[in-house]
Amino acid sequence: MQSIYSRVLLKLSGESLKGQQTSGIDTKAIDYVAPQIKLALETGVQLAIVVGGGNIWRGEDAEKQGMERSAADYAGMLATLINSLALQSALERHGVITRIQSAISIQSVAEPYIRRRAIRHLEKGRVVIFAAGTGNPYMTTDTAASLRAIEIGAELLLMAKNDVDGVYDYDPKKNPKAQRFSELSYSDILDRHLDVMDSTALTLCMENLLPINVFNVFVAKSLLDIIVGKQTGTVVRVAKSNLNTNDRGSIT
Fold this sequence. Notes:
The protein is of the alpha/beta class. The chain has a single domain (7-242), classed as Acetylglutamate kinase-like (Carbamate kinase). Helix content is 37%, strand content 18%. The protein has nine helices and eleven strands. The strands form two sheets. The protein has a nine-stranded mixed sheet with strand order 4-3-5-2-1-6-10-11-9, with helices on both faces. It has a two-stranded antiparallel ribbon with strand order 7-8. Helix 2 (27-41) crosses helix 4 (69-93) and helix 6 runs parallel beside helix 8 (199-207).
């Protein structure tokens, strides 16, 4: 199977890496995700990854307990680096060459984030994991994923969720009658106050016409299906009525 995209960015939440545990890294979960990524790579797509850190540390929670917010957020960046190292190890066990680039300097285990170097790694078929968010407090890893996707020229931002297979009108865990959307516009997300990503991240995608696909990474071959063009999860993009000849070629 051949990818319909040249380059994509996958956002893995920290929640997806804790699997069935209450916190930390579930090796079963991470060992499941790694071969799914390898399958996607075999289609010829270039793949970058941003990993969250919520399974280990949440800056907002630490702030509520009295910790200064900037310090709490920097601790969260270190949590994303721990997750990145674990994911890199799992990928390399499956024969996937991987590089970690960190937004904060930690040269013993990761390269500094350099856009041109990251693109060169991707062109050589390596997976690049972007760690430490944007390197700035008060910014989420969702924002980092949107920013890095735009910087490297990704054609699609993949938002991998744990136990949620798309965007719903209500929380499906609380309302069994909740309906899943197959497609939404950026404006729909904002108007309906749907929980997809933070508003800064969504605005970046909207202003740069970067499509988003929300899906459950733990559905077998769901990542592969999206890469080869099969409808999976929920797609968020510009409303078709607003398309013009200057829009990204990957938007249909």
